[in-house]
Give the backbone structure.
Amino acid sequence: YALVDARSRELHLKGLLPGQEYYFILRAVNDKGKGEFSEIWGPVTTNPEKPSCIFPVQVVDVDDRSCRFRFKLPYNMGSCITEAK
């Protein structure tokens, strides 16, 4: 929900998640009441971003020939994570 000044013809929405689909509806409001909603418009997909770092990395087991560790993948930022290095 966002208010738009009646003299404006654009709105800059902040805080949307990357790589996600959004749908929009609009309606006019004046001192007599609220108009009907517009048709649903969308989807509009925000651009994906690269994922943040893998954190935390926890060493689970170490021996003379191997090391086993555990980690949590970050939020994918709208694009599938295909590998971790």
Strands lie at 21-24, 29-30, 33-34, 41-45, 57-62, 67-71. The longest strand covers residues 57-62. The chain has a mean pLDDT of 89.
